C-alpha cells in the first residue's frame, strides 16, 4: 500500500481545498512549498510523487516559435528543463511518479482550423515526449489532465480568478476531478484490476428476452438501440483483449443462449470469447460463487453487470465482495461507461493477458476431468506435464512483475516487487531467478511460476526470496518441480542449505504447508548449530514470518515422477 504522497506543482495547489478529499481520504498528502517542483524532482524523493505540470507556467505562450511539427528542435529546447528534472528523478528512484499535465488555454478554433497554432504544436510535442519517457520507465505514470477535466467542462475547471488571486489555475471542481483521477491511478498501483466481468444476456447483451421473442425478435445489430447493444459487446470484447475474463450468468435456456452466440449475425461476441458459463434458473449469486470456484478466483475479483435492478440488489446483498455497478436505464450510455471503468483498467496488457480466456478454459477442462478421475496420481501421469524454465529478460520481465502483483493464493511471501526492485533481485540471484512455463494435454498455460533465490551472507546458504505459482495451474504439483529445478541450480553452485519464509495472509492459506510437506524443517525444529547459521544468514532479509530451512543433500521432494526433469533455460 502507498501511504505518504508528495505533491508538487508548477502552480499553487490550495492544499486546504475540499477538492483534495478523494486523495486525502486514502493518503497522507505532503504539499511542500509553492513552486518547489525542481527540488522535489531532483532530490530523489523516496515517497511517491504527483507532479502537476501546467505547460503555460513553464513556457510563456508568446515565446513559442511557429515551428513545423517535423522540426522538433525548438520545442525540445523549450521543454528541456522539464525533461531533465523528470529524467533525474526516474534515474534516481523507483518510487512511482505520476505526472498530471495540462496544456489547455483559451484559443480560437478558427486559428487552428488549418495548420494549427504554435501552442497546440508544442502541446502535442509534450504529449509525445512524456509518453516516450513512460515507455522506458515502469515507475512513470501519466494523467492527461485536459482529458480528465473535459468531462466536467474545461471552462468550469480552470479559474482565472484563482490564478490571479492565488496562482492556482484550477477551480474547486477542477481540483476535485484531478484528485479523483489521481486517486484511481494510485489505487491501481497498489492493487490489481478486477479480473472477471460477469454479464447477463437478456436486455444486457441484446434487447429482448430470447425465450419469449426468439432469436429473430432480438434487438441487436440494427440501427439505433440495436447498435448500442453491439457497441456494449464490443466494449466487453476490448476488455477481454486487455486481459479481463468474460463470463455469462443468465436465467435462460442454455440452448437458446448458445444459439444466439453461434448464429445471430449481429453478435460482436462469440462463444470463444467467454471463459465460463452459467445459463440456468438458479439464483445468480449461487452461479457467481460456482464461477469463482471453477476459475479459482476470489469473489472480489468479479464485476457483475445486469440490467435488472432486483438481480443487482440480490447480488449486493448475498455477495458484497462482488462489484455490482448501477448502470443507467439508458442503454446508449453503457458502451462508454463500461469502457471507462477504472476497476477493470490495467496499465499494460501482456501476451499472457491476451491468452487468458483460453488458459482459464483449459483450467476448467482440467478441473472437470480431475473430479471424475479415480486416482489423482494416475490422472496427472496421463496429461503429459511438460514444464520448463524460462529466463527473466526484457521480453519476460513484464510477466514476472505481473505475477508479483497479482498472485495471492500460492505465494509464500506475497512481495509486490516493482520494476527497479525486481531488476536488482534478478541481478543478485543470477540463474537462481527464473520463470516457469507449463504445457500439458490441456494446452500451453504460459508463464505461471516465478522463483527468486538470493545468495545469503554465508556462501553455502541461499534464501528463497520469491516463490509463487498462478492459481490457474494449481493441482498439478508444479510447485514440486519448481523446487527441484531450483535445487539443481543451487547444488551446482555449491549451496548446501535453502532457507525459506512463509508469511501468512488472508489469501495464501493454500501455501501454508508447502514447505513442511516438501522436506523443510521449521526453525524451531533445527539443531542449535544449524538454527544459529540459518538465523545469521537471514538477518539481512527482513523476515517477519515463519522461517524454514532444508539441507539440500538430504531433501526428498514428492511428486517428481509426474514430470520430465529437464531444467535447462529456454532461449
Query: What is the CATH topology assignment of the largest domain?
Result: Aminopeptidase
Shape: globular
Task: Report on the biggest sheet.
Answer: 9 strands, mixed
CATH class of the largest domain: Alpha Beta
Second CATH tier, the architecture of the largest domain: 3-Layer(aba) Sandwich
N-to-C span: 36 Å
Number of helices: 23
* Overall mean pLDDT: 90
Number of strands: 18
Number of domains: 3
Global Rg: 27 Å
CATH homologous superfamily designation of the largest domain: Gcn5-related N-acetyltransferase (GNAT)
Q: Which short descriptors sum up this protein?
A:
Rossmann fold; alpha/beta; Aminopeptidase; 3 domains; single chain; 23 helices; 571 residues
Describe this structure in words.
With 571 residues, this protein is an alpha/beta fold. It has three domains: 4-190, SGNH hydrolase (Rossmann fold, 3-Layer(aba) Sandwich), CATH 3.40.50.1110; 196-344, 3-Layer(aba) Sandwich (Rossmann fold); 372-570, Gcn5-related N-acetyltransferase (GNAT) (Aminopeptidase, 3-Layer(aba) Sandwich). It has 23 helices and 18 strands. The strands form three sheets. Strands 10, 11, 12, 13, 14, 15, 16, 17 and 18 form a nine-stranded mixed sheet that branches. β13 (443-455) and β14 (461-469) form a beta hairpin. α4 runs parallel beside α5. The longest helix is centred in the N-terminal third of the chain and has 20 residues, at 73-92. The chain is globular and about 80 Å long.
Amino acid at each position: 500500500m502507498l501511504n505518504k504522497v508528495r505533491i508538487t506543482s508548477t502552480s499553487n495547489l490550495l492544499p486546504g481545498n475540499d477538492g483534495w478529499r478523494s486523495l486525502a481520504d486514502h493518503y497522507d498528502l505532503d504539499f511542500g512549498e509553492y513552486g518547489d517542483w525542481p527540488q522535489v524532482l531532483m532530490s530523489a524523493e523516496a515517497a511517491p510523487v504527483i507532479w502537476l505540470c501546467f505547460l503555460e507556467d513553464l513556457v510563456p505562450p508568446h515565446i513559442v516559435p511557429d515551428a513545423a511539427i517535423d522540426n522538433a528542435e525548438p520545442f525540445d529546447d523549450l521543454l528541456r528543463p522539464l525533461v531533465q528534472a523528470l529524467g533525474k528523478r526516474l534515474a534516481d528512484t523507483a518510487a512511482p511518479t505520476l505526472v498530471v499535465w495540462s496544456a489547455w488555454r483559451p484559443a480560437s478554433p478558427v486559428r487552428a482550423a488549418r495548420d494549427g497554432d504554435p501552442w497546440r504544436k508544442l502541446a502535442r510535442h509534450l504529449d509525445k515526449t512524456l509518453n516516450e519517457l513512460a515507455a522506458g520507465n515502469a515507475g512513470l505514470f501519466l494523467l492527461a489532465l485536459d482529458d480528465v477535466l473535459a468531462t466536467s467542462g474545461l471552462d468550469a475547471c480552470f479559474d482565472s480568478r484563482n490564478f490571479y488571486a492565488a496562482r492556482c489555475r484550477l477551480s474547486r471542481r477542477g481540483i476535485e476531478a484531478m484528485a479523483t483521477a489521481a486517486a484511481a491511478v494510485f489505487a491501481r498501483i497498489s492493487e490489481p484490476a478486477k479480473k472477471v466481468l460477469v454479464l447477463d444476456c437478456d436486455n444486457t447483451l441484446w434487447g429482448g428476452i430470447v425465450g419469449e421473442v426468439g432469436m429473430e425478435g432480438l434487438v441487436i445489430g440494427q440501427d439505433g438501440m440495436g447498435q448500442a447493444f453491439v457497441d456494449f459487446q464490443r466494449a466487453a470484447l476490448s476488455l477481454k483483449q486487455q486481459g479481463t475474463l468474460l463470463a455469462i450468468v443468465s436465467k435462460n435456456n442454455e440452448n437458446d443462449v448458445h444459439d444466439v452466440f453461434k448464429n445471430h449475425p449481429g453478435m460482436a461476441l462469440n462463444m470463444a470469447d467467454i471463459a465460463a458459463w452459467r445459463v440456468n434458473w438458479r439464483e445468480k449469486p449461487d452461479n457467481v460463487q460456482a464461477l469463482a470456484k471453477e476459475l479459482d478466483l476470489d469473489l472480489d475479483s468479479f464485476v457483475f453487470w445486469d440490467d435488472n435492478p432486483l438481480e443487482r440488489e440480490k447480488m449486493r446483498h448475498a455477495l458484497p465482495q462482488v462489484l455490482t455497478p448501477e448502470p443507467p436505464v439508458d442503454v446508449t450510455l453503457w458502451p462508454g461507461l463500461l469502457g471507462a471503468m477504472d476497476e477493470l483498467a490495467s496499465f499494460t496488457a501482456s501476451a499472457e493477458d491476451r491468452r487468458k480466456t483460453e488458459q482459464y478454459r483449459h483450467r476448467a477442462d482440467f478441473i472437470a476431468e480431475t473430479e471424475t478421475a479415480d486416482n489423482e496420481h494416475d490422472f496427472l501421469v496421463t496429461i503429459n506435464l511438460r514444464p520448463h524454465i524460462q529466463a527473466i529478460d526484457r521480453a519476460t520481465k513484464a510477466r514476472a512483475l505481473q505475477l508479483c502483483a497479482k498472485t495471492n493464493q500460492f505465494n509464500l511471501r506475497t512481495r509486490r516487487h516493482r520494476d527497479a526492485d525486481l531488476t536488482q533481485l534478478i541481478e543478485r540471484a543470477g540463474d537462481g531467478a527464473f520463470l516457469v512455463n507449463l504445457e500439458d494435454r490441456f494446452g500451453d498455460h504460459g508463464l505461471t511460476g516465478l522463483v527468486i533465490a538470493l545468495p545469503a551472507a554465508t556462501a553455502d546458504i541461499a534464501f528463497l526470496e520469491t516463490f509463487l505459482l498462478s492459481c490457474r495451474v494449481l493441482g498439478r504439483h508444479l510447485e514440486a518441480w519448481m523446487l527441484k529445478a531450483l535445487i539443481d541450480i543451487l547444488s551446482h553452485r555449491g549451496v548446501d542449505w535453502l532457507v525459506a519464509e512463509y508469511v501468512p495472509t488472508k489469501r495464501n492459506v493454500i501455501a501454508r504447508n508447502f514447505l513442511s510437506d516438501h522436506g523443510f524443517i521449521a526453525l524451531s525444529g533445527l539443531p542449535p548449530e544449524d538454527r544459529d547459521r540459518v538465523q545469521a544468514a537471514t538477518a539481512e532479509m527482513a523476515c517477519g514470518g515463519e522461517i524454514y530451512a532444508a539441507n539440500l543433500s538430504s531433501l526428498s521432494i514428492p511428486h517428481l515422477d509426474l514430470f520430465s526433469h529437464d531444467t535447462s533455460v529456454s532461449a
